[in-house]
Amino acid sequence: MNRMDALLDLLSKIHQILVYNSRYHGNIAFEEDPQMNRQQVKDYLGISESTDKRMVKQGRLRPMKLPGGDKFYKSELPSEYQESRRRGRV
Fold first, then answer.
1. 64-66/35-37 β-pairing
2. What is the pLDDT of residue 20?
3. CATH code of the region 34-90
4. What pTM does this model have?
5. pLDDT at residue 19 is higher than 80
6. Where in the chain are the domains?
């Protein structure tokens, strides 16, 4: 019965993660939320390489570290986009 309890615990944790993500992304489906690489984010925000690195270091941009390079979800960038518009970058 120990393996069954471990499996149920794992399934419960997966369910909690999925529920959290659906709340976090709101009405955006996972497939509709595009992933952007580091260069696309810099172009989208109108920032330089050094600004990008500084924002990641400060925690303002949170990339997903993947083997093919860092990826960002576009839905996680609206506050930084608003700041870029305020500063006249885009």
1. unpaired
2. 60
3. 1.10.1660
4. 0.60
5. no
6. 1-30, 34-90
